[in-house]
Write a structure and sequence with these properties.
Strand order of the largest sheet: 1-2-5-6-7-8-9
Oligomer: single chain
Distance between the termini: 79 Å
Largest sheet: 7 strands, mixed
Number of helices: 8
Number of strands: 13
CATH superfamily of the largest domain: Ribonuclease Inhibitor
Shape: elongated
């Protein structure tokens, strides 16, 4: 295997050496590819390894994940089966547009790199719905205030983040921060529809009883209570605000049976019955 001290190490040369050492004859037989600490500075296309699942690239000198001659194409742009990817201990500055297609990814190690844009990195990770283990320690973005809750909220499938298990309390705290408006709406939902509160006013108990009020205050209270609608009136008002429903069916009681048709009995013409309710 080429020495780390070489000025530039070719990726395909390293891969061929790896396959030879592990007695791998065909590209389709490659499931695991260990290329850690090989002194790599550039990446090449890995499209020939269609069934690649685990890829180790830690401890190299990588600064980007695109092809040298095409900065818009990821070096694993068709390796959709990758489930574990180790890119830690490199000099990667951005993963934007390079990893979002790896929707089968379960383990992603990115610690000790140069990632500094939290929003850009989060956007790249959001499509990974099966990602369970994520490590981004020792990146500049890990110093951003609220960094942990931000990633926990936008990557809900992650259960182990930066070597610490994600707790239910952290998920609740992240939801309260990033879903404030949604939570306010959910609080008004009852049994699948928006609730307008109880059909009658909430009666708040006072420390002062009605018998302790002066006579003038009692009279004013009686007048105010007369202005309030009754419980039946308020229930009726709410009922009228609901959407009306109706259905129509045939009145089968007027349809002549077999004997009546044989005897030629005169029966009234069947009619439709329409039922309407709220």
């Amino acid at each position: 295997m080429p020495s780390v001290a070489d000025e530039k190490v070719d990726l395909m040369t390293v891969i061929q050496s790896y396959m030879r050492d592990n007695n791998i004859k065909r590209d389709d037989d490659v499931r695991d590819l260990y290329l850690g600490s090989c002194g790599l500075t550039d990446l090449d296309n890995l499209e020939q390894f269609r069934f690649l699942q685990h890829l180790w690239l830690q401890g190299n000198k990588l600064s980007q994940l695109c092809l040298p001659r095409n900065p818009d194409v990821s070096f694993v742009h068709i390796n959709y089966r990758i489930s574990e990817l180790y890119l830690n201990d490199n000099d990667i500055k951005s993963i934007s547009g390079m990893l979002h297609h790896l929707t089968c990814l379960k383990v992603l190690m990115l610690q000790n790199n140069q990632l500094d844009d939290l929003d850009e990195t989060t956007l790249e990770l959001r499509p990974m719905r099966t990602l369970h283990v994520l490590n981004m320690l020792y990146n500049p973005l890990s110093q951003v205030q609220g960094y942990r809750l931000h990633l926990i909220h936008f990557c809900p499938s992650v259960t182990l983040f930066d070597r610490q298990a994600v707790t239910a309390q952290e998920r609740t705290a992240a939801s309260q921060i990033y879903e404030e408006k949604q939570n306010a709406v959910k609080a008004t939902i009852a049994f699948g529809r928006r609730s307008g509160g109880p059909p009658f006013p909430t009666l708040q108990q006072s420390k002062t009883t009605i018998h302790e009020l002066p006579s003038q205050a009692k009279n004013d209270l009686d007048k105010k209570q007369e202005c309030f609608p009754t419980l039946e009136e308020m229930v009726e008002e709410r009922t009228m605000k609901k959407s009306s429903m109706e259905y129509t069916t045939l009145d089968w009681s007027l349809v002549p049976n077999r004997l009546q048709r044989i005897n030629g009995d005169i029966a009234p013409k069947p009619q439709n019955i329409t039922v309407k309710f709220r």
